[in-house]
Amino acid sequence: MSKRYWLMKSEPDAYSWDDLVAEGEGTWDGVRNHRAAKNLRTMQVGDEAFFYHSNIGKEIVGIATISQAGLTDPTDPEGKWAAVKVRPVRKLANPVTLKQIKADPSLPDIELVKLSRLSVAVITPEEWAHILSVSEG
DNA sequence: GCCAACGTTGGC
DNA sequence: GCCAACGTTGGC
């Protein structure tokens, strides 16, 4: 399976990029949406994900990598929901804001915008490359 | 099985 | 603070 790309949302009040960097590795759990959970189950070790700050900032701030996949959510007493572990890779050269993404004609169908409530979204390889190029100017 | 009411998320 | 988009719940 070739590498996939994701976007993981977090409110920086609750868990920010800096928190992930400070911890070195974070568990992505507490997801209670079937579509997002399906994305979590599809993730493989080595996949990469944009780390997006919702509510405050509303921008992609960094890149994380999936360090452990296919875990059971430790916060779910019934053990039915999925979780993964992520590690920070690097901060983006420049954060890419939601505003930029929405205004960008190269990103017409990005799941972040189309399914704005989804906490774990799919990013296509094309979208990944484009957002990186925007970040790096 | 349908649908209205309600709750949650997240942008504005 | 409001609203749109969805998901879930419960009455029928």
Automatic annotation (TrEMBL):
Gene3D superfamilies: ph1033 like domains. CDD domains: EVE. Residues 4-133 form the EVE domain. Signal peptide: none annotated. This is EVE domain-containing protein. It comes from Novosphingobium album (ex Hu et al. 2023).
